[in-house]
Batch of 2 targets.
Target 1
Amino acid sequence: MIALLVVGGCASGPATTRSVQGEGASASDRVGAPGLEALRTKIGFFTRDPCASGDAAEVFARCGRFTTEVRNAIGQVRRDAPDATPQADATEQALGRFAETGCEAAPGTVGEGDPAVCGPAFAAVQDAVQGMADAVGPAR
């Protein structure tokens, strides 16, 4: 009984979604912040990550989580900030080149690529992420 009260007390209110039907497609409203503002907050976290601003040749090997999270946000950029699509495309391409060089590590692991090759490839990722952040705009 106490556990139910504790768990029930953690909720700030019911999480609701409303399903919208139309022409064979369905979507759900987002729960929480509007999509663009949530995206701006997320991208803001990316730009403050040490992987975004550190010396590319030194940090690339420890940035598997960063590259994965950035890659996962690209679709949201295209959806919620369509004017930033060119920068999302550039970021996706930079991430692809970085992965193709064999430099990208899985999240939680350390990459083993050559800093002379991986550093410039990761610097391109850093530049692309900053360009995408500039295009999306700051959180308000």
Target 2
Amino acid sequence: MITILLFTIGCSAPKKEVPQKKVEDVEPAPRVPIASVNSSIPKYKFSFSSLELGMPISELDQRVFKHYGEFYTKDFSVYQLDQIDYLAEAHYISNIDLIFIDSLLVQIQAFLTVDKSNDLINQFGRAKLLINDHHNKTLLETERAITKTSKGYSINEKLDQFRLKWVRQDADIEYEVNKKLNTDSTSVNMVRFSSMGNPNGFKYKLTFQTTDFQYQMALIEWESTR
């Protein structure tokens, strides 16, 4: 059967060749990459809430923070937020400063782009309200500082410069607000908030520190003068 098949194919009349149209070489189209915005968004996210007072410096995520410098003595180190794209709360936190003394985290400062007064009051409870300027002191002579609403406690929106303080067993918490324009702000406050990249001019700073932070700072300053 194989022989017959080969023979049949060999004896068949040759087919007339059909002239083929010459195809010109075409350069392949350049590959269009996926939108760069997708590739630039890091999959890794660091949460602000993962920072804990007392944590050793060896546990600090070096992908997110950079060593800013050492001051007073070699035991006083400052780290600063370096990769804000990694920060899960980047939509309302613009910068974070960390202070380590003897390689332990003793202070956390976060600079916010939105006011979190009401959230903090409802989260931490009763706070001490500190007001130093004449405008806000006069305002409180006729209006309440904090009112209770259906959503919880709310601070008077007309207050534009104040501090809220909470004293806990394990930490001191302070939230500082300065919505004033520079014309009515003290030079101290202007310097204090000058590093914040806030286009709306609203200034908010949240601080967590160990209960003995002031004592440790005094000790560091004393050691630096010896």
